[in-house]
Automatic annotation (TrEMBL):
Keyword Metal-binding applies: no
Cofactor note: Binds 1 pyridoxal phosphate per subunit.
Cell membrane found in the keyword field: no
GO cellular component: cytoplasm
Assigned EC number: 2.6.1.11
Residues at which pyridoxal 5'-phosphate binds: G108, A109, F141, D226, E227, V228, Q229, T284
BP GO annotations: L-arginine biosynthetic process
Lineage: Bacteria, Pseudomonadati, Pseudomonadota, Gammaproteobacteria, Pseudomonadales
Protein name: Acetylornithine aminotransferase
Localization: Cytoplasm
Record PTM N6-(pyridoxal phosphate)lysine, positions in chain: K255
Length: 406
């Protein structure tokens, strides 16, 4: 028996919600696989993936089953106790990565907050309070808390909220010499996204990440990889650091980790984890049974050769067609990214018009994203069917053609 709800429309948003978002004019109400339907029953293909969150699309049966079974068993017990789904998920993450210890929370910002606090605590305990500086990249994005937004190198997100957290500096991404000049014995951590997501789907050069690792080792600093957007199979490896062969000291994960259920994780080593003794950090909902049960189902599906190899193959299918569209219509100067995190960099004539293309795609029944005003971003389901890729990119081409010929 379905519950009757009071009718609501897009206009209600402007009456009852804080205006910090500007959502689309239509309201999605149902999803299945790589398709969603809005209130009018219109079907759209989803290549946005909830901003790289819906790793297995909408209503994947393994996730629905995990959530339903757990919902009938135990929802919340708090961290006064541990629980079985938390321990199973932690084991699977440890077994699959460099990590030996896991801290669970509810979002990417919280995972990064924990990572940054851990880095400062380790440096404080081992070297004293002077060793507290964090170096991050310009145009990075690490979350919206005051600490994480200060580490993120985009002043438009951090200005206007009072004094910023001190001891944070920013250097150009992929610039080894700038990084060398910045790192010192006062540095406690270097924080990098292996692929800058919000900054334009910009992959790191291998030499850059290798240099960061060497500099951190030389100066007793920790290397933190923010894999909130790149992790959980998005690049064709379980985590992007595996693609590069550069191992961090601390890694943050969220987004795809729960496949749409809010969960985040900070992964690290036993040696570093011991600095967060009981009472030093916490979260009410972190590691709750519902989130961990769903995330366990996600990793069981994603961390398989079939899915990870599929991501690499689908990536080539996307890139080849997007490059062809870019050449035919003159809209893209470059198609870049790894796996199913793809950025189409707009050509000079189209700079600043990513939102225009996004809106035109929605009219044709396709959901895509932007990553800065100059990059159209694709982050579809990792198991998107080949036929859906063809259909979605046909819709995308129609949208581009109408804009170019307008």
């Amino acid at each position: 028996m379905s519950v009757q709800h009071d009718p609501v429309q897009r206009a209600d948003f402007d009456q009852v919600m804080v205006p910090n978002y500007a959502p689309a004019g239509f309201v999605p109400v149902r999803g299945q696989g790589s398709r969603v339907w809005d209130q009018s029953g219109r079907e759209l293909l989803d290549f946005a993936g909830g901003i790289a969150v819906n790793a297995l699309g909408h209503c994947h049966p393994a996730l629905v089953k995990a959530l339903t079974e757990q919902a009938n068993t135990l929802w919340h017990i708090s961290n006064v106790f541990t629980n079985e789904p938390t321990l199973r998920l932690a084991h699977k993450l440890v077994d699959a990565t460099f990590a030996e210890r896991v801290f669970f929370c509810n979002s990417g910002a919280e995972a990064n907050e924990a990572a940054f606090k851990l880095a400062r605590r380790v440096a404080h305990d081992k070297f004293g309070p002077e060793k507290c500086e964090i170096i991050a990249a310009t145009n990075s994005f690490h979350g919206r808390t005051l600490f994480t937004v200060s580490v993120g190198g985009q002043p438009k997100y951090s200005d206007g909220f009072g004094p910023k957290i001190q001891g944070i500096s920013h250097v150009p991404y992929n610039d080894i010499e700038a990084l060398k000049a910045a790192v010192s014995d006062k540095t406690c951590a270097v924080v990098l996204e292996p692929i800058q997501g919000e900054g334009g789907v910009l992959p790191a050069d291998l030499a850059y990440l290798q240099a960061a690792r060497e500099l951190c080792d030389k100066h007793n600093a920790l290397l933190i990889f923010d894999e909130v957007q790149t992790g959980m199979g998005r690049t064709g490896e379980l985590f992007a650091y595996m693609h590069y062969g550069v191992t961090p000291d601390i890694l943050s994960s969220a987004k795809s980790l729960g496949g749409g259920f809010p969960i985040g994780a900070m992964l690290t080593t036993t040696e570093l984890a011991k600095h967060l003794v009981a009472g030093t950090h916490g979260t009410t909902y972190g590691g709750n049974p519902l989130g961990c049960a769903v995330a366990e189902a996600v990793i069981d599906v994603v961390n398989t050769p079939a899915v990870l190899d599929g991501v690499k193959a689908k990536s080539e299918q996307f890139k080849a067609r997007l490059r062809a569209i870019g050449e035919q219509y003159g809209v893209f100067s470059e198609v870049r990214g790894l796996g199913l995190l793809i950025g189409c960099v707009l050509s000079d004539a189209w700079l600043g018009k990513a939102k225009t293309i996004l809106d035109a795609a929605a009219v044709e029944g396709l959901l895509v994203l932007q990553a800065s005003p100059d990059v159209v971003r694709f982050a579809p389901s990792l198991v998107v069917e080949d036929a859906d890729i063809e259909e979605g990119l046909a819709r995308f081409e129609r949208a581009v053609a109408k804009l170019v010929n307008a």
